[in-house]
Amino acid sequence: MNVSHGAFLVMIMALAGCSDAGLRDLRSNTSGPDEFLVLPVKPLSAPDNYSDLPEPAPGSSNLVDPNPKAEAVAALGGRISASEGIPASDAGLVQYASRHGVPGDIRETLAAEDEAFRKRRGRLTQIRLFRTDRYSQVYNKQGLDPFATTLRARGSGLATPTSPPETNR
């Protein structure tokens, strides 16, 4: 095998290694429907008493309409009703976490700050020859090294569970 065949083989293997974008590239590359927007409905059932049904109102929800957020809360052991308030066991934690006040627009503020941070960090990374993991590229310095953190905790006397070997990263 001559040098040109070897260089060609190395180039093919390098390109093959770059093909997996992983789970962080969530953009759809098709124009088809988004399967995550399709929500299955509950099966229809007859009520015990038809006189107990609420009056129909335009735009109101159906009894069999899916409510993914409430179903997820119930599946994780939470309470669906917001009127039940904060459990007594969590009141101290909520009070401490909100001791400096709770801004109503925290999600919008964090989204704007995150976008500004990514723009600042990504000024020189707009020109790319190959697909890159923008998430890792921008937030690399904010990541934790789990092995160093475990060693630091063990050094301070904390009991920690075992970790997989570092070679399995």
Give the helix/strand class: mainly alpha
The helical percent reads: 25-40%
Q: How does the overall form come out from the CA principal axes?
A: extended
Q: Would you report the number of β strands? A: 0
Structure notes:
The two termini are 35 Å apart. It is extended and about 85 Å long. The chain has a domain at 106-153. The chain contains six helices and no strands. It has helices spanning 3-17, 68-75, 88-97, 106-121, 134-139, 146-155. The chain has 169 residues and is mostly helical. 38% of the residues lie in helices and 0% in strands.
At a glance:
The chain has helices at residues 3-17, 68-75, 88-97, 106-121, 134-139, 146-155. The protein has 169 residues and is mainly alpha-helical. The longest helix has 16 residues, at 106-121.
Based on the model shown, name its key terms.
6 helices; extended; 169 residues; mainly alpha; 0% strand
Compile the SSE list and pairings.
Blueprint: H1 3-17, H2 68-75, H3 88-97, H4 106-121, H5 134-139, H6 146-155
